[in-house]
Amino acid sequence: MNDAEIGFIERFGLIFEGDGGPRIAGRIFGLALLGDQPMTLDDMAEVLQVSKASVSTNTRLLNGMGLLERTTVPGDRHTYYRLAPDAFDVSLARARQRIVAVLELLTDTLPELPDDNLVAQRRLSEMRNWYEFLAEDMDAMTRRWKAIKAARKEESDA
Questions:
Q1: CATH topology of domain 3-83
Q2: How do residues 85-138 score in pLDDT, each as one tens digit?
Q3: Distance between CA 152 and CA 154 in Å, rounded?
């Protein structure tokens, strides 16, 4: 690996950690973004210079998030991991699910708040407006992304 690839992996780990995830999961995802071949847990542990147990735990996390997928190689008993082919679509869908979950919580809670708790009513109402905006914008973003992907596919097929 060259310095740019190593730097990308390390910075991606920090970004992932900044979003509340484990740094090693971000590093594994960064590695998967750069590689075109599936890798075993041993391969990843060696490249990233971390324990196989840490890689195992975090590949399961990334697999559960829909960002990595498990695969096999004919004639080899090892389990391999690679970037999920729809990782970016899954990421966008998961972000929307989180927005909708908060929006549902706010919508359910607001009518149940005591009439004399004006601070909570005001704050939660404003937060609900914000999350409604985010959900609508996320839907528009998803439509634009699908249109862009379709156009790029048509160009590459032509």
A1: Arc Repressor Mutant, subunit A (1.10.10)
A2: 999 888 888 889 999 999 999 999 999 999 999 999 999 999 999 999 999 998
A3: 5
